[in-house]
Write a structure and sequence with these properties.
single chain; about 250 residues; alpha+beta; Arc Repressor Mutant, subunit A; Beta-Lactamase; 6-stranded antiparallel beta sheet; about 40% helix; about 20% strand; elongated
């Protein structure tokens, strides 16, 4: 290890240590021999990485930490989900005529990882990468796995996050069983202005949104609707029963 790749030596040394640990747990001495980093420097960096959960310990050896696993899973999930979801989102947008989005939960916020805009001149626009609150909007209710959303299989919101806008969302779930739904991994949504969605958007769009979520589950896991709730039967644009009153 005689040269720096990034021009920032401490970053390069840190990456060398993490890369060395890809092969499995290693003692400090083995890491020093593998990377060429001075022992004191390697130990200081490893201790710092351990504080951030990027490195752990097993006996006297260092190993990759759980924070790296979470980061890797998040990166793969966002990329794979967005790619796998695109056909379903395109169909959802075309069926409803409204903008369609896919969200992932990131701590206390939800992040838009895919977004297709409505062809109407008056439409909702959510850019990819946008961070939105978890406590407002139908997608937030779905990602929080609220009881009502779980029972019904979808959620609706009216002017919770933005005046004049309503939305309907359904969960994309991981593998589960008929008696126990799988974990919520994403939320698929359709949103638009109240002039078209009305104040009961679930009546118009719930069936289409749930079908889109099912299609994404099939694309990702080979099976769909591993959840207890069911969507109302019907087509997008035709009213179907929506038992609960949307939140103002």
């Amino acid at each position: 290890m005689g040269t720096t790749i990034s021009g920032i030596g401490v970053v390069d040394k840190t990456v060398y240590l993490l890369t060395a640990l890809e092969s499995g747990p290693m003692a400090l001495g083995a890491l020093v021999e593998e990377t060429g980093i001075p022992r004191a420097t390697a130990h200081r960096l490893l201790r710092a990485l351990e504080q951030h959960g990027l490195v752990g310990r097993a006996g006297g050896a260092f190993l990759l930490g759980p924070a790296l696993a979470r980061m890797g899973s998040a990166a793969l999930a966002a990329s794979d989900l967005a790619e796998s979801a695109r056909p379903a989102l395109e169909q959802l947008r075309d069926r409803t005529g409204e903008s369609a989005q896919l969200y992932l939960r990131r701590g206390d916020v939800r992040v838009c990882v895919a977004s297709l805009e409505s062809p109407h001149s008056l439409r909702t626009i959510v850019p990819v990468g946008a961070h939105l609150p978890m406590d407002r909007g139908s997608a937030g209710a779905v990602l929080r796995d609220e009881d009502a959303a779980r029972r019904r299989g979808w959620a609706q919101s009216v002017e919770e996050r933005e005046a004049g806008v309503a939305s309907v969302s359904a969960p994309v779930r991981g593998p589960g069983g008929p008696a126990k739904p799988g974990p919520v991994v994403a939320a698929v949504s359709v949103s638009g202005p109240l002039g078209r969605t009305t104040r009961t958007p679930g009546r118009l769009y719930a069936a289409a949104v749930v079908e889109a979520a099912t299609a994404i589950e099939v694309a990702l896991f080979g099976t769909g609707r591993s959840q207890v709730g069911t969507a109302p039967a019907g087509r997008a644009g035709a009213e179907v029963p929506a038992p609960a009153t949307p939140r103002p």
